[in-house]
User: Fold Syntaxin N-terminal domain-containing protein from Pavo cristatus.
Amino acid sequence: FIFKRSAEIQRILNQLGTPQDTHELRQQLQQKQQYTNQLAKETDKYIKEFGSLPATSEQRQKKIQKDRLVGEFTTALTNFQRLQRQAAEKEKDFVARVRASSRISGGAPEDSYKEGTLVSWDSQPQAQVQDEEITEDDLRLIEERESSIRQLEVGITSFTADFR
Assistant:
């Protein structure tokens, strides 16, 4: 199940930064990460319980099964942790882009380029007003994304601590 959840997380990560990137998509990403983290903790507990079952005449078979399970579990955890870091990096990149694109122009014409359109020097005051309006929306977006980054980083730290 961890592999399946990781594939779902990867699919969502591929949509970040595209037109499909929405607040709901990011919430879905966060929920899947939390669920996968919980699933990993439970799986770890069950593998430990499996390893502590009473020895039988099939001890060698049990050891082989346990080793295989531990190997698959470790691979799944490594992949999940990589995806968590990738999600945090995408969020940080987004915040940096929004901050860079929402800076209010200091008056230099070369600073007036925004989202593929060049604003003429004559229309600078109007562009500044539009930038200020965009900035309020962008600030809200930045706050949401920074909150998401903090939650991702807490999840990564917790996840790493749980499996050391």
About this structure: The two ends are 21 Å apart (CA to CA). Confidence is low (pLDDT under 50) at residues 104-132. Residues 59-101 form the longest helix (43 residues). The CA atoms of residues 16 and 90 lie 7 Å apart.
